[in-house]
Amino acid sequence: MRSLLGSYVKVLSDTPGLGQLALNTIAVGPNTLRIYESLLRLFQEGEMERGRAAWAADLLLLYCTAIGAEHGNGLNPGHREGPLVPAIRGARQEDFPMIHASRDELLAGTGDERIRWCIDVMLNGVLMTARPTPSARDDARGSGAAKRTKRGR
C-alpha cells in the first residue's frame, strides 16, 4: 500500500501542475479508478469491511493528492530552502511559545518518513474507527430502496 500511494504522490509531485489539477478536479478517469481498485483489493486482502475500505481509500487518496499538490510546484515547503523552515525557526518565543519550543520536532524527519507516518496513522485510525451507519437523509440520496421500504412497498 505504501508503494502504491508513494508512487501516486511521486507522479503528482514530479509533474508540474498535475497535483494542483488533481486537487481541484474530481478525477474519474481510468487511472484514478485503477488506483481505487488497487487500494480496495489491498484492503480486501487485509479483510477490511467493504464500507470502511471504501472510505479509507478516499481518505488516503485525498491526503496523497494534497501532498502531491503541495510539492508539485517543485518546492518542498519543509525543505531547508522552503518557506516553512525560516518561518518556524523565526517564530519568537514570546509570540509563539509552543512553536518555538517544538521547532526542532516540527522540522524533523524526511518527507518520506513523514508521509509513511501519516499513512500509518490514518490506517490505524481507520482500523479502530467504524464507519457511521447511514442516516435517513443518506438513504434518501441513495437508490430509493430505503424510501420504498419505509412506505411499505
TrEMBL record:
Q: Which UniProt keywords apply?
A: Transcription, Transcription regulation
What this protein is called in its record is: Transcriptional regulator, TetR family
Q: Which InterPro entries match?
A: Repressor_TetR_C, Tet_transcr_reg_TetR-rel_C_sf
Q: Which GO biological-process labels does this protein carry?
A: negative regulation of DNA-templated transcription
Is this entry keyworded Transcription regulation?
A: yes
Among its keywords, does the record have Transcription?
yes
Superkingdom of the source?
A: Bacteria
Which Pfam families is this protein grouped with? TetR_C_1
Q: Where is the Tetracycline repressor TetR C-terminal domain?
A: 10-126
Q: Where is this region: Disordered?
A: 131-153
Q: Which organism is it from?
A: Labilithrix luteola
